[in-house]
């Protein structure tokens, strides 16, 4: 007898999924007229749904913008908000139920006293007896009772919203006394007035609110505020110790990125934060070793190449002066300048420490040196001139930009501004400028425009690249825009 095929036979073959009954059923349902009609209907109502949800989305965006952006504040909200909300809900539910029970019992006791007085007045009528009953009610029950003949009950007033006392008193009077009545629980803050129709006269009863109603909102508010403050103090003390290591790690990373020395940094805090701090220290050590190895290698290459170029110069000096020798000497000088430019770009003056420098004097020095070469350069500075930076690197950055501007413009202005925690230096010229589409491309190493706009004095095409690298090493950047003089503006911005 042949065995029936296995129900899952063939599922491993390519293309066999479409043969499954479940897949075929899903495909048929997806192509059914009812599903297509539902899709078309949803597309028709989609604009209405988007319009209805637009206010909620707007509120959500505004709420997100209003929320704090710092980790410290967000962590406080995450810890405090759920606890306070949960505690408020729990305390309100349990305390409200407790006060409801107490209020009903107090109202029932007060109504029993009023019912007893009503029975006595109806059982022993007479002015003398009524006066005695009024005296007993005042002395023994704490109720102010008066009998007013031929006075109708006032019209029913609207009941206050969420009045527990009004509903409790009304229910108890209806059940225990069963006569027409009128109550006022809001007219007098400390008293509750009850009027009961007794035939042709009305009995007025004034009771203290504390006899009929129990609520302690002050304790509830004090409890909520007190516990919230305690939670807030504990959370602040705890989170401050947890956030401080993260801030120290961020400060250390920022100082390392700007080339400043990192002092007294040790991994602290939670295990994950300590791990991140230890990883940062290892990364710092690897980068410093790599930079030291590169500096050593470049120093060796520089020494060897300078030795070769020196021999070339000596050999050319021994030759008779002619046009070929002068051309060779010029080539050697160009090689020397290119070599210095390549080494400066690769080395980046990484060994220079940061210190306080007078940027205004540095800009004046650059302008004076450039004017000696026959260029029209002026400088000015606003704000505190003392800024913590690497002066040698920063001077090279500005000098590259000024030299680049002098090559293509007849007038160059250097303007410095130190304000709002930033040092900004603008180098403006009146030259032809650079097209906006090429202002980012010219920062590439060795990139040259047709007019060789980004060539430095070495002719290597590294002037703008070196300037941007130096600015970014200080935590800033270099941007190119239109100059008020009609040419190009190079703006250097670094935090200070």
UniProtKB/TrEMBL annotation:
Q: Which residues cross the membrane?
A: 71-95, 219-239
Q: Identify the keywords attached in UniProt to this record, alphabetized.
A: ATP-binding, Cell inner membrane, Cell membrane, Kinase, Membrane, Nucleotide-binding, Phosphoprotein, Transferase, Transmembrane, Transmembrane helix, Two-component regulatory system
Q: Does the keyword Transmembrane helix apply?
A: yes
Q: How does it sit in the membrane?
A: Multi-pass membrane protein
- Note the superkingdom of the native organism: Bacteria
What is the name of this protein?
histidine kinase
Tell me the CDD domains matching this sequence: HAMP (cd06225), HATPase (cd00075), HisKA (cd00082)
InterPro entries linked:
2C_sensor_his_kinase, HAMP_dom, HATPase_C_sf, HATPase_dom, His_kinase_dom, HisK_dim/P_dom, HisK_dim/P_sf, Sig_transdc_His_kin-like_C
Species of origin reads Kaistia hirudinis
Q: Does the keyword Transmembrane helix apply?
A: yes
Q: Where in the cell is it found?
A: Cell inner membrane
